[in-house]
Design goal:
Number of domains: 6
Number of strands: 29
Number of helices: 21
Radius of gyration: 41 Å
């Protein structure tokens, strides 16, 4: 078959047509690239704005947390001032509070201080604070004007460190008193905790004046250059230059970047900058354009050969192109002519192919899809995607519209994203209606939201728990403190009236309340140490039977006085064991104390101890059972929670802190034991503790102790090192009553000087406090032992301190001290300790 020759005119016409078609295709490719670029920039803006907003929320939470800490501290200072505490007491409290706050949020972040009665009191006093003109400061004036409300001041440079800080200040109940807390912004602990910034991105935090407070910069440059760069960004943010999605600027390193920002409620601004190359695929963008150009060239070359087929199969090509572009992402695609109200199915989901023809009236799509959406979404879906709504959006120039909804697939609802895409240049009378399965992404997003909500609830719960803890602790400590203060007032009045019996009665009550307060403090310290994991377990030989008998003997007197029966049953074969005698004694004391406390006159308390073999260790089962008030099943679930106390009705009032059983459980766990409870309300309780204790080869020896002559105090000389004037005065008077001559030292360095000035062997004993200014007790003891004199290693040194834990005793031993006596001082025990140390020294 011969082919007809094309006339020049016809050939020219096809060439012109081919050129025109290729130009249109080229324009479409350019437009697509530009559309992709625009979309990528818009998505980057959404991401950047979301990140900036999240960092802003984090900064807001940090400021709120610091403000809450300041408010809590001001409440305690109010309580101290209202109770008549001295400025020294307040300064000590501020120092302690600063230490606890530093342990919580990090060192060097805050510095608390206060104005009390016209006097400036600081947790960390600095040189010249006595001349500090706090009246002229802005933080002081703002606090007075705020009338009890917390005020976060503006950022300024600290006169001492030169670092940027701002001050949170609160006026106190007494006129002119103010609590304040400096917050150091340039401390490493204040940096934003964002760990995954986009690649090459930078983070800046500026105050309302544009001062750079914190930065995580992609550039390695000096602070002055960073500040100039921050000023440049803030200026362009204020004039709106950086508000558009495609707005860019030149960074410090000459790269092109986009900026995203969020303003905090206090006027600070969070700024995030991202390189444009990172947004637009970096170097891959050049490769993409090169491949696009090659594709266009090849397409133009081949188009001359396939132009006839392309014209004949234009519709198929159009559908195929659309399917290839969107098919992987969308499970259903339709071209909708909103003028004529008809559709053309480019891709139809499997479950809709039976009810939807390839083309037809648009109402068929709406009726089919609306039958599958959830009933709660039906009305909104029908209204949003009706032909009338689509026409209105087209008139307004909305190119992309859609959202997520739940659609039924084979009886199961899944999340689906629907979109209408409109381009007036490509199809002025049509929109693309497409559907994409986003169930996995949506559920992950919802799960992430749930996790965030749970984390927020956990944070709120933790805050409430801390608040409850301090509230209860304050209440339980106030009770014995009120008794002590009240009895002191009664004792003064009775002393003035000459009623010595009433004075003695008041002193006994003061002693009882003091013991109660000491027990509460010990319980709190023991519980906090256990929670922090700082409690240590010793393994020393001791006689278990002796420990049990001594413990029962203590409580037997109390039980008899209260008309209660305490019965003991000991079934032991090996009584010499290795373990922590102190912790086991504490467990027994708590269990027996509670048993006696929660029983009525006539009730019975039974202590039963059994021994049974278990592998290479022996196990000892301790049972404390009573016929007392018992506990409800509901309360048993919370028995081992701190401060848990059951409200019950009985003939006596129940006094307790709610810390005993949590401490018991902690001690049992530390000893690798187990504890169980059985209790019935109104019948009684049974506590069973099982602890493994290896046997000790040592045997209990009780040698007869020869009668010793009474200790002669006359002529003894004792050096007392104590920085607290009242404690030093009391200890001096008690020792002088025994006939002792006392040498006083006000702190550690003074103790070394006083001892060095005495004649050798003239000082019999040194009583050393631990926490003293300039030089603490351990340092002073080490210095004394290192003196070049004959009695430096001869003289006994006894530690007298409130630090009563095992590691504290270990520190005193390493410092060369001979013994350890805890505060508050039991003078009888102190006298016995002095006699023992002197006897041991003389024996050598």
């Amino acid at each position: 078959m011969k082919h007809k020759k094309l006339s020049p005119r016809r050939g020219t016409g096809r060439t012109v047509l081919s050129i025109l078609v290729m130009m249109v295709v080229a324009l479409l490719l350019i437009f697509s690239v530009q559309l992709v670029r625009t979309k990528m920039l818009q998505n980057a803006q959404n991401l950047g704005d979301a990140l900036a907003q999240s960092y802003a929320v984090e900064e807001e939470l940090n400021l709120k947390s610091l403000t809450n800490s300041a408010i809590l501290a001001s409440q305690y200072v109010n309580e101290l001032t209202s109770s008549g505490s001295s400025t020294e007491d307040i300064q000590q409290w501020l120092s302690g509070y600063f230490g606890k706050l530093s342990d919580t949020i990090g060192d060097g972040l805050v510095d608390p201080y206060a104005v009390i009665g016209g006097e400036f009191v600081a947790a960390n006093p600095w040189e010249g604070d006595e001349d500090y003109r706090y009246q002229d400061t802005l933080w002081y004036q703002q606090a007075l004007e705020a009338n009890g409300q917390a005020v976060c001041g503006d950022v300024y440079s600290d006169v001492i460190t030169g670092n940027l800080i701002f001050t949170i200040s609160i006026s106190l109940e007494r006129d002119g008193d103010v609590f304040a807390m400096d917050v150091f912004l340039q401390n490493k602990n204040t940096q934003n905790t964002a760990s995954t910034l986009p690649e090459g991105s930078s983070y800046y935090l500026c105050d309302h004046d544009g001062t750079l407070l914190t930065s995580i910069s992609a550039y390695e440059t000096d602070p002055q250059t960073l500040q100039q760069f921050a000023d440049y960004l803030m200026e362009r943010i204020r004039d709106g230059t950086l508000s558009s999605y495609d707005a860019t600027f030149t960074g410090v390193a000459g790269d092109t970047r986009g900026a995203y920002y969020q303003e905090l409620s206090n006027g600070w601004t969070v700024i995030l900058t991202i390189p444009i190359n990172t947004i637009l695929m970096g170097d891959q963008n050049t490769v993409f354009l090169l491949l696009t150009g090659i594709s266009i060239f090849l397409f133009i070359t081949l188009s001359f050969l396939i132009i006839r087929d392309w014209l004949q199969n234009r519709r198929m090509k159009r559908a195929d192109d659309t399917t290839h572009m969107l098919g992987d992402s969308f499970y259903a695609i339709f071209r909708v002519n909103f003028r004529d109200g008809v559709y053309e199915g480019i891709k139809i989901s499997d479950d809709m192919q039976k009810v939807l023809p390839p083309s037809g009236d648009y109402t068929l799509i709406m009726n089919s899809i609306c039958a599958l959406v959830k009933s709660s979404t039906y009305q909104e879906f029908q209204q949003s995607f009706s032909l009338e709504s689509i026409r209105q959006r087209v008139e307004l120039g909305v190119a992309d519209f859609g959202g997520d909804f739940q659609r039924r697939f084979d009886g199961v609802y899944r999340w689906v994203n629907i979109r209408t895409l409109y381009d007036p240049e490509v199809a002025p009378d049509e929109v693309i209606l497409c559907f994409r399965d986003v169930d996995a992404e949506k559920r992950q997003e919802l799960q992430h939201t749930i996790i965030l909500q749970e984390a927020l609830e956990a944070a709120k719960k933790g805050t409430r728990a801390k608040s409850d803890f301090f509230s209860r602790m304050s209440h339980d400590m106030r009770t014995p403190l009120n008794a002590i203060i009240g009895c002191c007032q009664l004792a003064k009045k009775s002393c003035a009236q000459g009623d010595l019996d009433q004075v003695g009665s008041s002193l006994k009550k003061i002693e009882f309340a003091g013991d109660q307060l000491l027990g509460l403090i010990n319980d709190i310290l023991e519980l906090s140490r256990a929670e922090a994991g700082r409690s240590t377990v010793e393994a020393k030989p001791f006689d278990l039977r002796t420990l049990l008998n001594n413990t029962v003997e203590i409580f037997q007197v109390r039980a008899t006085d209260e008309n209660k029966e305490l019965v003991t049953s000991l079934d032991l074969e090996q009584t010499m064991v290795l373990g922590d005698q102190q912790k086991l004694s504490q467990i027994l004391n708590n269990l027996l104390s509670n048993a006696i406390k929660y029983t009525n006159p006539g009730d019975t308390i039974r202590l039963e101890v059994k021994q049974f073999a278990f592998q290479k260790f022996n196990k000892y089962q301790i049972i404390v059972e009573d016929t007392g008030v018992g506990m409800s099943e509901t309360f048993l679930e919370h028995l081992f929670e701190p401060y848990s106390r059951e409200t019950s009705f009985s003939p006596h009032s129940t006094v307790g802190t709610g810390l005993g059983m949590p401490i018991v459980k902690s001690l049992v766990q530390q000893l690798s034991g187990e504890i169980s409870v059985e209790s019935t309300l109104g019948v009684g309780s049974k506590f069973t503790v099982t602890i493994p204790l290896p046997s000790s080869e040592e045997t209990a020896e009780h040698p007869s102790t020869p009668r010793q002559a009474p200790f002669d105090w006359t002529g003894r000389q004792i050096l007392v090192a104590e920085d607290n004037d009242l404690n030093r005065e009391i200890l001096t008077e008690l020792l002088e009553e025994l006939g002792v001559r006392v040498l006083a030292a006000t702190e550690g360095m003074d103790a070394v000087r006083v001892f060095a000035a005495t004649k050798p062997y003239s000082v019999d004993v040194i009583l050393m406090d631990m926490q003293m200014p300039e030089m603490d007790g351990c340092q002073a003891a080490t210095a004394i032992r290192g003196l070049d004199r004959e009695d430096a290693g001869w003289v006994p040194i006894i530690a007298v301190t409130a630090n009563a834990f095992a590691e504290d005793i270990d520190k005193t031993t390493k410092a060369g001290m001979n013994a350890h006596v805890s505060k508050p001082i039991d003078f009888t025990l102190l006298a016995q300790t002095i006699q023992k140390c002197v006897a041991e020294r003389d024996a050598h």
